[in-house]
Amino acid sequence: MRRESFVVSTHHDKVGFYMHGSPRIDNLQYANWSEKIFRQIREGAVDAVHATIAYHENFRETVLNFEKWNRWFEQYPDLIMKGLTAADVDTARETGRTAIFFGFQNPSPIEDDIGLVEIVHTLGVRFMQLTYNNQSLLATGCYEAEDPGITRMGRQVIKEMNRVGLVVDMSHSADRSTIEAAEISERPIAITHANPHVWEPARRNKRDDVIRAVTENGGMIGFSLYPHHLKDKTNCTLESFCQMVADTAERFGVEHLGLGSDLCQDHPDSVVEWMRVGRWSKEIDYGEGSAAAPGFPPMPAWFQDNRDFGNIEAGLKAVSFSDADVAGIMGGNWYRFYAANFGPQEAGS
Fold this sequence. Notes:
The chain is built from 11 helices and 9 strands. By secondary structure, the protein is α/β, with parallel strands linked by helices. The model is unreliable at 1-20 (pLDDT under 50).
């Protein structure tokens, strides 16, 4: 693809704060939510965000997180609103707000009770990972030495998720488990936040056969901006990132691509320990970081927070994506995915 020079905004001047033709969607964040961040989301013209609402919490603990979000919706009704369907993205855009869609990075909130799948969907959850990094009751995480694939319970949970409209997310899952999930699921699945392993061989990034299984079955991959998933980590360039997107589009189809920044803004480093360790270990798990730097790595200069999505849009245009393809990657593709997959399964499908 033809390459052009990149112009990166180094100041936050509400880049892209306008009613563009297609929505701007970030399909994964786990921020330390605050009025400041909600305002930055609006300054970045982000119309919808998939927000992690549980990592290792059980059902009752997750209910407390729903309560927190209900208070935020009450406190900041001019900035955010709860998202349940793709139509809510339209409502958010029309009213100058951001629709917040809930997701789990672990199936722990459903515990060992398949009946809770429908309950959490009713409460507003739209994505659930079948694993975090470890083996779960449903599938295998990407840090396990062996991957026996989707479990007996996992097959039943996928069927129930398909029925109610809860999207299967395999972002932290191992290869065989992800491929099997894509094949077992009667509806498209997602990798909400990861990058191709061929570009950067992080343990969490996805090999070609995994991406192919997901996309050939109609699924989506959201490109991550978390430095441990990037080539050259914090020093990754915008051009490198956007060329990676372009290469992936050529191989797997641009209609399957979006963003899932994995932005973990304003969290203390202790939250990284919670994410990686939860309650399962007495030892510190440094994940893809290093023992010398177990906390959150600095973000790349061209993506510090939600106000910088305009830089990515400009970067994608500079690697010769058409305006329509850029609009799809920036949110239009996720919007179509939401519209097709958040509702109950149609009878006979």
